[in-house]
Amino acid sequence: MTRVVFLALSALLVARPVWAQKTDVVTLVNGDTLTCEIKLLDRGRLQVSTDHLGTVYIEWDKIVSVTAPRVFRVETASGLRLLGLLTTSEPQHLDVVQETGTVQVDQPEVVYIAPIGRSFWRQLDGSLDLGMSYTQSSGIAQANFGASALYRRPNLQFTATASSYLTADDDGDDTSRHALDLGGARYFGRNSLWLLQGGFMRNQELGYDLRGTVSAGLGHFLVRSNKAIFALGAGLSTSREVPVEGDSTQQLEGLLSVRQSYFTYDSPKTDVAMIANIYPSFSDWGRIRIEFDGRVKREVIKDFTLGFSIYDSYDSRPPTEGARRNDVGLSLTVGWTF
Fold first, then answer.
1. Are 259 and 229 in contact (CB under 8 A)?
2. CATH 2.30.30 fits 2-117, yes or no
């Protein structure tokens, strides 16, 4: 009995568990073959896990074939969504083996792949950014902090972004801008989605201590590829403003939204993105608000970036008399992505 127990324990120690074996195979354009576990394809990069190299990121256009005997969710640039096993019958084509049959798609058209049943943390992507500056001649110091997170489900995605800009002046004229935005989107059709978002912002430069906003509408991808995303949205928005001086007010506004993102992983790795939201007021006819945020990032070492960010807040009729109509901020940032 002792010998049997010893042999059983030895087998458990030296044998590799079946569930830990990596059975996905990726073939590169140079002929190299990688046995791995596919984690995610998004924004033009395939993330895989290997036994000896750890986590590896491969540019999608550098791959000639993929084989994976597990169920994946696959999305294409045209909005097609499939569930099935992955295989390749001819180069630069991906075969998705479903219960109802096999669907072949051009590999360059595939923009998203994820295994079904991924854990919460593996479906979460995000970044942290920090920037600081000081000019002795003017006596002005600036600091900014930004954070963003994206969580995906088969037909849903949730986003959260937060930012703070602080300016300290030796003359005592300190200012700040703080913003928190939460959003959700549900896909329908091929490239359309329902939008719901809410947020809070504080910007005394534009005359308000706090503004809370809730918006709902429709969005549509005009471009969705492994290099770029361009989308438009429209809807209705309601906000509650607490001005620096005066009583709080309720606003009903329209919403027009433009989102653009460009990314490349050929050296130097670059990420360019911008979002502009336009709010024409129905409660105060003729008033228009615009919120613009943009960024440029380049990776300097793995997962760390240097970048440039800009924001512009405009209000044609600030809620406090005498407040500025426009507030612009520029900063250099050091960032980390996860």
1. yes
2. yes
